[in-house]
Amino acid sequence: MKKTIALLLAAFAFSAAANAQVVGTAEAVQFPAFLERGGNSVPLSPGTSLQAKDTVRTGAGARVLIKLTEGSLVKLGENAHFTVEKAQPVGVFKATLGVLQGAFRFTSDALRKGLKRDVEIKVKNVTAGIRGTDLWGRSTTDEDLVCLLEGNITVGTQGHPTVTLDTPLDFYRKRSDAGPVVAKVDPEKVKEWAAETEMVKDGPIGRVGGSWRVVAAAVGSRDEALALNRRVRASGYPSEVAQTPSDKVYVVQVAGLAGEPEARAVMANLRTVAGVISPSVRQGP
C-alpha cells in the first residue's frame, strides 16, 4: 500500500502552528476516541502530539494513554472529556488539565520524581494541585472524586477550605448535593477503580510503533472509498485510504494496531459500520 490518499483539509486543520508547543503525546488508544482542536474533530491516532486547548474525548469502552513531555502519564477511561486548558512545557513544566467527565489517572515518572512541576487538575468541581505523585479520579453527574495513591496533593472546591492529602488511599469526594468529605478507601476498591483507566487485554488498541492493520474494504471507486473512510472515522477509528501498486483498488484501512488480537478486536467493531465488506487483519505496511 504505497500511496495514501490524505484527507488534506483535515490535515491542514490539525497541523500544528510553527510556534505551537507540544504538551504530550497519545502513546496508545483503545478506540473509539477523538481529538478536538480549533473547532474540528478527528479520530485520535497513536503518536498524535497534544497542544494547549486540545480536547480528547473517549467513547464507550475506550481508553487513552497520554505521555506528557516531562514524563508523567495520564490515563483516561471510557466516555471521558479531557482538556489541556493551558500549558508551559519549557523550563518548569506547568499545566492545567481539565477532566469534565469520566475517570483518569495521573502518574509521575518514577525516574523524574524530583523534577519540578506545577500541574493542576480540575475535576469539574474539584481542583487538585500536584507536584509529583500518583492519583486516580473520576467525574460524574453525581460526584467528583480524587484518590491519592502515592505522594501528596492539595484538593479543594469552591466555598470550602483546601485540604492536603498525604496518606495513600485517602480520597476527597464532592457530591452534587452535599459538601466535600475526606475518607479512606479499601485497597480492593482501588483495584476496581484503577481498572477503569487501564487498557483492556486484547482490546481494540493502537500503539505508537504498532505494525498491524485492519482492511475494512477494498473497492474500485475512489469516491466509494472516501465515503466509507468518512464513516469509519466518524465512528472514532483513524482510518485512511490507500491504493494498490496498480492503482486500480482503493483500500480503507486502520493501521498502527498493537498486535493481532488487538487488530481482530478492531475488525469486529468495524463490522457494524455500513459498507465494511469482508474485513481482514494484516501485518506490515
UniProtKB/TrEMBL annotation:
Keywords (A to Z) from UniProt: Signal
Domain SPOR: 206-283
Source superkingdom: Bacteria
Gene Ontology molecular-function annotations: peptidoglycan binding
PROSITE patterns referenced in this protein's UniProt entry, alphabetically: SPOR (PS51724)
First and last residue of the signal peptide: 1-20
InterPro entries assigned to the protein according to its UniProt record, in alphabetical order: FecR (IPR006860), SPOR-like_dom (IPR007730), SPOR-like_sf (IPR036680)
Protein name: SPOR domain-containing protein
